[in-house]
């Protein structure tokens, strides 16, 4: 399993636009075979930082999602929403793996 951690710097004045963007991607990641763990929006502290986490069974499945989503109309519309509203200033992507709490000897 691979989990993708996204850290967004957002325009705090366009939080509603970013929320709509996030709602779309939760649905889309799940439709493409991933498991979206949600978007985490500013509450206390920094008002311009948000996070998202989603997982795929492995890196190959994630890469297939990237290929397939590049031409998907709903994905393109979500990207266009972020672009036209300017709700996302920048983002960082990290790839994580879960710790196996019960490794086999």
From TrEMBL:
Domain called NIPSNAP: residue spans: 7-100
Source organism superkingdom: Bacteria
Gene3D superfamilies in the cross-refs: 3.30.70.100
Entry's transmembrane regions: none
Record InterPro entries: Dimeric_a/b-barrel, NIPSNAP
Name recorded for this polypeptide: NIPSNAP family protein
């Amino acid at each position: 399993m691979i989990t993708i951690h996204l850290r967004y710097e957002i325009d705090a004045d366009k939080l509603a636009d970013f929320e709509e963007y996030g709602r779309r991607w939760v649905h889309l990641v799940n439709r493409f075979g991933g498991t979206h763990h949600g978007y985490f929006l500013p509450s206390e502290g920094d008002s311009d930082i948000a996070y998202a986490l989603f997982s795929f069974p492995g890196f190959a499945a994630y890469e297939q999602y990237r290929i397939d989503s590049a031409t998907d109309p709903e994905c393109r519309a979500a990207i266009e929403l972020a672009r036209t509203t300017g709700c996302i200033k920048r983002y960082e992507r990290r790839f994580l793996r879960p710790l196996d709490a019960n490794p086999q000897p």
